[in-house]
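lol forgot to send this yesterday, sorry. struct tokens for the thing we talked abt
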């Protein structure tokens, strides 16, 4: 759910509302209430995941080949993933963590180790591993981005 605030709202302002649903008497259910709290933030992170075929498993597909479209690949070929976090807000965002996992029926292809621009790579890193690859960035300034890239080989 995306909530929009007026232009006069400042970072840190909190709005709390009690929401109550009262079903019709025939339902036999009593009223249900929940408290909704919205906090104004000035950071806004947008993620974009793209992929590229690396048929030779060199770990270095052409940059122009990364796309969000469906990709066809065969066993023993590699697919490289790039996840980019852009801070589209007007203030820095702290403790940014990009995390992705090796898909089913794939293993990390460490022809080129996973990379993270403007951050530190974490998670799995050895050839043939399965699991999560991460990229942590302590602070992502307004307008800045961090990009994680890793490749997997199809079983």
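and heres what i got for the seq, position by position
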């Amino acid at each position: 759910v995306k909530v929009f605030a007026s232009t006069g709202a400042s970072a840190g302002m909190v709005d709390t509302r009690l929401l109550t649903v009262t079903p019709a008497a025939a339902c036999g259910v009593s009223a249900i209430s929940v408290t909704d709290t919205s906090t104004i933030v000035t950071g806004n992170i947008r993620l974009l995941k793209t992929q590229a075929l690396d048929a030779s498993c060199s770990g270095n597909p052409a940059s122009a080949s990364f796309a969000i479209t469906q990709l066809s690949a065969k066993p023993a070929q590699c697919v490289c993933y790039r996840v980019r976090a852009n801070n589209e807000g007007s203030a820095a965002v702290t403790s940014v963590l990009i995390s992705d996992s090796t898909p089913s029926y794939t293993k990390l292809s460490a022809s080129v180790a996973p990379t993270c621009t403007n951050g530190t790579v974490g998670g799995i890193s050895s050839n043939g591993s399965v699991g999560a690859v991460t990229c942590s960035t302590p602070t992502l300034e307004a307008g800045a981005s961090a990009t994680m890239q890793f490749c997997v080989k199809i079983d």
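DSSP finds no helices and ten strands in the chain. anyway ping me if u want another try
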